[in-house]
């Protein structure tokens, strides 16, 4: 089912006027640019970056030429071509992302608008990817505008922008552990006030948000990113490093059937006549 001779695509050429760019992935411990060519692909990449059970990931649809042009490491097994049959003819397609979970099993992930993913050809592609993932004892994920929610994405963007380190971070993070015990629910503004007498306020808050972001990537941030919007007044809690990670709800491997809408029917039953007294026209007055 895998045809390694297929050439990869140039993401930014096919993107055209759509949203395209890079996210600085921190999944492997070093910053690695990951390209995207749609808003949903960007959401998928960041969702993977903050999934504690994802060990690493890479684009499955680029090849050595694209990687060389943009100075990217060449992904292993890329382009990752998957064979499928459509209208009785063999084809292949290149998934958006491939990677490895922390248990060593592979995964394949796709992102796109739900209406588009319900097209006959895309359903055939998804079925081929799903079969391949199951054969390899891995998983297949489909992310759409319903499952890759805007609120979670905005929260992850907020945290991702605050994970850069700085010279004073190491000292502040040590002091932070003393004033913010594991599991204590407290807003960032309150935690910051506990250290404002020891370090500059701006550095204290920057260090807190970096710790929160790092904890989120490890699955140790206790707050519902689907329900709440992060800010300095929202109560948060951090779990200890040895705690089991909190895992987001998995993306589906199939699209659920659309809910059927009941259509009101018009009854063709003839109207029943209402019984009433008969009328004798002979009793009308004669015309003058």
Would you give an account of this structure?
- This protein is α+β, with helices and mostly antiparallel strands and 288 residues long.
- Among the domains are: 11-143, Trna Endonuclease, Chain: A, domain 1; 150-217, no CATH class.
- It has 9 helices and 8 strands.
- The protein has helices spanning 11-15, 39-49, 64-69, 114-117, 120-135, 150-160, 169-179, 188-193, 201-217, and strands at 21-25, 32-36, 54-59, 82-86, 89-93, 97-101, 106-111, 139-143.
- It has a 4-stranded mixed beta sheet.
- It starts with 10 loop residues before the first helix and ends in a 71-residue tail after the last helix.
Question: What is the gist of this entry?
Answer:
By secondary structure, this protein is an alpha+beta fold. It has helices spanning 11-15, 39-49, 64-69, 114-117, 120-135, 150-160, 169-179, 188-193, 201-217, and strands spanning 21-25, 32-36, 54-59, 82-86, 89-93, 97-101, 106-111, 139-143.
Shape: globular
CATH architecture of the domain at 11-143: 3-Layer(aba) Sandwich
> Oligomerization state of this entry?
single chain
Beta-strand content: 5-15%
Query: Class of the domain at 11-143, according to the CATH hierarchy?
Result: Alpha Beta
The main sheet comes to: 4 strands, mixed
Number of helices: 9
Distance between the termini: 98 Å
Average pLDDT level: 88
Share of helix among residues?
Answer: 25-40%
Q: Provide the spatial order of strands within the biggest beta sheet.
A: 3-6-7-8
Layout: helices, strands, pairs:
Blueprint lengths: L10 H5 L5 E5 L6 E5 L2 H11 L4 E6 L4 H6 L12 E5 L2 E5 L3 E5 L4 E6 L2 H4 L2 H16 L3 E5 L6 H11 L8 H11 L8 H6 L7 H17 L71
Parallel strand pairs: 7-8
Antiparallel strand pairs: 1-2, 3-6, 4-5, 6-7
